[in-house]
Amino acid sequence: MPVGYLWTVVFVAAGTLFALAPVRRPRPLAGLSFRIGLVIGELPFVALTWLLLWTAVALAQGDIDTPGSWAAVALAAITAAGLVLVVRRGLRGRTEVERALAEGLGIDWRAAIASDVTVGLRGRRPLARILFRPFAFRPRGVVRVADLRYGAGGRRHRLDVYHHRVRPAGAPVLVHLHGGSYRGGRKSSQSLPLLHRLASRGWVCVSANYRLRPEVRHPEHLIDAKRVIAWVREHGHAYGADPSTLFMAGSSAGGHLAALAALTPGDPSLQPGFETADTSVTAVIGLNGYYGPYYGQGPESSPSAHITADAPPFLLVHGDRDTMVHVDIARRFAADLREVSVGTVVYAELPGAQHAFDLFHSLRFEAVVDGVEAFAGWVISREWAP
Hints:
The protein has helices at residues 3-20, 27-42, 44-60, 67-105, 115-118, 127-132, 192-200, 220-235, 253-263, 327-340, 363-384, and strands spanning 142-149, 158-164, 171-177, 204-208, 241-251, 283-287, 314-319, 345-350. The protein is an alpha/beta fold. Helix 10 links the parallel strand 7 (314-319) and strand 8.
């Protein structure tokens, strides 16, 4: 029995099972299911290539010569079929994003985008990138200016700026806040395919740290997020930005923080020392976000408690297999926004997607990146319209 081959098949088979049917309980198994299932679910082509390669090597070396080894080959075949199903679910992500845009922006949303904005919007999947370079390496044309200070909180008050090597002028801004349950996480770890894509298209993108539990609690994280917005408004011009067009984005806990920041613009109680700073935002992008109350605090710590009729446009994207933040939380927040706000709300629910789907250049997240760019183009076009 080729032990190395057996372990490879078992690992990929378990990851494929967890990608198709993630486990929520008990906690240790749920954590394992999340980690392995996420990787296999977003990188099925890598997993399939690895599985086929090891199977070919085992057959070529004559290691498949016992009933047990043939059972491993049979498991590999079943796993390969499961990976095909994972790919099919990933392909459906684009259809869901397109449906959500049509529902939220109108069937003719493409025609509403200014012609100069539509230049460069992708019409096809970047298959070469998805198949051969799924990891988030920074493109050559994008410059990262790292560890800029925006507050007095040490490394937790640092941010990175991404811009095109040919420095833009009057560029829209995307500010992204990482996830990590307010206990962990760091800038430049999530949504990098999105940041790199927009920066390569002439945007100025900002990825920021913020202070974490247990050193601080809500609303200290929110104050940090507002400090980032104020910093962009003061210093963004130096990097080619037009801070009057500022999109707030966040992943997981960062989605909670981005929504709260967008729904409490200019609140002096949340801007100590910079009360007069403009902390309004143009629109919000929430990726696998949490939108409920903060740990042990009341409903006032939930974004839903701060929705008003003039809330900015929202694009919310969530996975229907999310085991960390149940999809019902995102559905309720989208419904709350639509009930109170007169602004645009786009809600896309990705088939088969787990939490943290924004880590790789996967079929699913590339569809989301294109959706974000289209949504932003639509919002910007409306702002520019006479």
